Amino acid sequence: xxxxxxxxxxxxxxxxxxxxxxxxxxxxxxxxxxxxxxxxxxxxxxxxxxxxxxxxxxxxxxxxxxxxxxxxxxxxxxxxxxxxxxxxxxxxxxxxxxxxxxxxxxxxxxxxxxxxxxxxxxxxxxxxxxxxxxxxxxxxxxxxxxxxxxxxxxxxxxxxxxxxxxxxxxxxxxxxxxxxxxxxxxxxxxxxxxxxxxxxxxxxxxxxxxxxxxxxxxxxxxxxxxxxxxxxxxxxxxxxxxxxxxxxxxxxxxxxxxxxxxxxxxxxxxxxxxxxxxxxxxxxxxxxxxxxxxxxxxxxxxxxxxxxxxxxxxxxxxxxxxxxxxxxxxxxxxxxxxxxxxxxxxxxxxxxxxxxxxxxxxx
Length: 363
Ligand SMILES: Cc1cc2nc3c(=O)[nH]c(=O)nc-3n(C[C@H](O)[C@H](O)[C@H](O)COP(=O)(O)O)c2cc1C
Hints:
Order of helices and strands: HEHEHEHHHHEHEHEEHEHEHEEHHH
Shape: globular
Number of helices: 15
Number of strands: 11
CATH class of the domain at 6-79 and 118-250 and 342-357: Alpha Beta
Bound molecules: flavin mononucleotide
């Protein structure tokens, strides 16, 4: 089943379905069925990015793929995680200890990205250097889009994407010379702005001129893909869709929670990173919203505070607390499938939705 639009030719892909995940097997599977994989490397160290890109290149051959980084300009120069942790407010550290006691969270035995790093401008530069030196065909930036980094990426011959959530952000991205705008609405999993996807896309298309726009946030059915074309987008960009795929193979506790979830089971919370981020609702997000809970810290300090307990929660699968970034589109993912099956379903449904639209309009 092929659904195509001009961006397919521009990017060298068969279907205008772009998929972001932090998992290499998902990336390879998306590429193998003609979509465009974009690896989320924000949680990878520079040397890991080089290795992850090498594997994708080896598996995908000439099929293009991208790498996405989060580059918030609000994050500073501090690189000493231990010193930062020590300096955090006592109230916040006590809250974390109480959570660990209440839910009996054992210590993690293995370090994670966040339990060994503090996000800093130095880390971002090193991640960017590894991305630019890699065989990735494109570079995507989210939560901040320093113009200088876009310029550098273009010097390396990368196609550049920017995830944006408002017309003002789109204008800034266009000024910086971005090649593709990813208009990400409020419905989306992960860090997101306050404008709903349906309201956002046509506003971005109106400022984009000749620059292609992709629709992100809440896309879980082919009817969304067809609606995205109607709103002027050339394709869609999905994150939540892959979480319950067989390739992603998340822990059983988390997968079961996601498979049962509807759109109302997600919420925007500052508890993940200090910035608004749509998550699956669990005891983690709810505890931070109880009266008397401290206000989450700003980025990057919230993750300095929470990294150790989160590592324990994930490693030991502490069911009530385990969570992931999740969009309202989770309502369309109630059974585990392979990435190929998810893509096939979306394309078949898109075809059906476009035919249905034509039937309706024919009277
Ligand atoms: C688990 C998860 C992790 C994400 N991580 C990132 C990320 O690191 N960088 C990024 O640009 N977007 C990230 N996003 C957002 C996606 O790029 C995308 O915009 C969003 O998932 C689209 O909405 P949907 O979740 O309804 O498909 C993430 C989304 C999810 C669900």
